[in-house]
Amino acid sequence: MTRNPIPEIVIGRLPVYLRALTRLLEQGRQVTSSQELGERLGISAAQIRKDLSQFGEFGKQGTGYDIEFLVAKIQEILKVDRVWEVAVVGAGDVGHALVNYGGFHDRGFKIAQIFDNDPDKVGTSYKDIVVMDIAQMQEKIRKAGIKIAMLAVPASVAQEVVDQLVEAGVEAILNYAPVNLVVPPGVRVQYIDPSVHLQTMTYFLD
Amino acid sequence: MTRNPIPEIVIGRLPVYLRALTRLLEQGRQVTSSQELGERLGISAAQIRKDLSQFGEFGKQGTGYDIEFLVAKIQEILKVDRVWEVAVVGAGDVGHALVNYGGFHDRGFKIAQIFDNDPDKVGTSYKDIVVMDIAQMQEKIRKAGIKIAMLAVPASVAQEVVDQLVEAGVEAILNYAPVNLVVPPGVRVQYIDPSVHLQTMTYFLD
DNA sequence: CCTGATTTGTGCAACAAAACACAATCGTGG
DNA sequence: CCACGATTGTGTTTTGTTGCACAAATCAGG
Fold first, then answer.
1. Which of A48, B9, B84, B205 minimizes the number of CB atoms within 10 Å of its CB?
2. How many separate domains does chain A show?
3. Is the CB of B2 within 7 Å of strand D?
4. Measured between beta carbons, which residues in chain A are less than 8 angstroms from residue B97?
5. Domain presence at residue B201
6. Are residues B73 and B88 in the same domain?
7. Per-residue pLDDT, B52
8. B98 and B128 share a domain?
9. Assigned domain for A184 exists
10. What is the pLDDT of residue B4?
């Protein structure tokens, strides 16, 4: 039952469910329950059931959830039942690690383009992808119809690059630069800043 | 004024405030308001005021907040008014990028130890830190009294390493491995998984 | 010293999320 | 083919979070 506006917090949990379910599949499991999943994720069983029920009835009473089926459903909901081309901006250590990372392939993403403004880097290859000049970024992204970018540039130029990305049609940005970004409505940003993550934990240390 | 149990969601916003305030300081600003801060962060002014008021009265009516003072207060609250030694486990691309990253220094963290199980990597230096064998991890971490670790190992061994870290006294883990970790009460985990972050955004794409 | 423009801190109301609890359903084993 | 244990989906209750609105405080200018 595709209900009206699904809370964003629910959407945020789906990738976590998906990751755990995929792992169960790899372990040869065929069926699981909200209880088992909840124990593994530290989430209540009721919450998992309610989250999933927002999108349909995927389980069987008395039995649980067929993992393969549920994985397919969540992939469909999250629109990762396809492969999205992604652009990486910034060919420093982070950009390098992202390009080398093998984990995107099975999860709906493929790094298609890399950009940097350093002439020494432009033209070199990361894996089988040639680093392009950031001056060509907008044209290349628009031409390829890329909607997703990962931003791994210095904080000082992040906002400027974001403005260009948005103008080129990008609608989802994973930001590794340690600054808040201002984007127009309809464009989403997710933040990865190790210091921020660490600082949320130090509060609880002695 | 209520110093009792502060909601975790509030704690999670403080590092973001801190980052923005620090940036304002760098720009030479001395005073700001909840309204200005809110506009920059996409958060309501009321929320910022309420969050901060959980810890004390840091602003001045009619004037706003003295940025330097507020930065100091938030650093104190988050316990990043000191420098925490951090251990990195896994000397692959991610571990490498973390060690090279210059952004920890001013934000309360210092990478003090790196571990890997690859004999080819053990003994080599990343920056000025020598990669140590993971076999010595528990001893080294315990001896140094390290409470914070960043985990950048393959998913298949992540839980096993975490168990060792916890046993060695680590209480906060920033996990780059794409798996959910099970930890005892009192130990905190934060997750960084680019695919998960991206998948929360694809839902909203066309 | 008074007035008006700001801006904080907060009580209260509105909204959102999580937990509870249970009828309905399913599969199994006797 | 019946009874029982397991498990879902969901209406209701409980708990938590956010937004609103305003008194109180502050400052600048005349």
1. B9
2. 2
3. no
4. 93-94, 96-97
5. no
6. no
7. 98
8. yes
9. yes
10. 67
**Subunit contact B19:A178, Cβ cutoff 8 A:** yes
pLDDT band at A77 (very low <50, low <70, confident <90, very high): very high
Mutate to test the interface with A, among B199, B205, B206 (most CBs of A within 10 A): B199
Rounded distance between C-alpha atoms, residue A112 and residue A132, angstroms:
11
Task: Determine the number of helices (DSSP H) and then strands (DSSP E) in chain B.
Answer: 8, 10
Structure tokens that stand for A193 in this block: 């800043």
CATH number for A17: 1.10.10.10
E strand residue ranges, A29-75: 31-32, 59-60, 64-66
Q: A45 lies in which domain range?
A: 8-77
The 10s digit of each residue's pLDDT in B68-90 is 999 999 999 999 999 999 999 99
Q: Select from A148, A159, A200 the residue whose CB has the most chain B CBs within 10 Å, as the one to mutate to test that interface.
A: A200
Sheet containing B31-32: give its strands across.
B31-32, B64-66, B59-60
Do A144 and A180 reside in the same domain of the chain?
yes
Q: Which of B25, B49, B77 is the last residue of a domain?
A: B77
Interface contact B195-A15, CB threshold 8 A: yes
Angle formed at CA A140 by CA A85 and CA B97, multiple of 5 degrees: 60
A102 touches strand D (CB under 7 A): no
Beta bridge partners of B7: none
Question: Å from A61 to nearest chain B CA?
Answer: 26
Nearest Cα of chain B lies from the Cα of A63 at a distance, in angstroms, of: 24
Q: Which residues contact B69 (CB under 8 A, 6 or more apart)?
A: B58
The residue whose CA lies nearest the C1' of nucleotide C21 is A46
Nucleotides of strand C lying closer than 7 angstroms to a protein CB: 5-11, 16-21, 24-27
- Nucleic strand C near CB of residue A5 (< 7 Å): no
pLDDT digits (tens, 9 = 90+) for A160-193: 999 999 999 999 999 999 999 999 999 999 999 9
| Domain end point (choices B51, B77, B103) | B77
> B110-154, pLDDT tens digit by residue?
999 999 999 999 999 998 999 999 999 999 999 999 999 999 999
Q: In which band, very low, low, confident or very high, does the pLDDT at A2 lie, cut at 50, 70 and 90?
A: very low
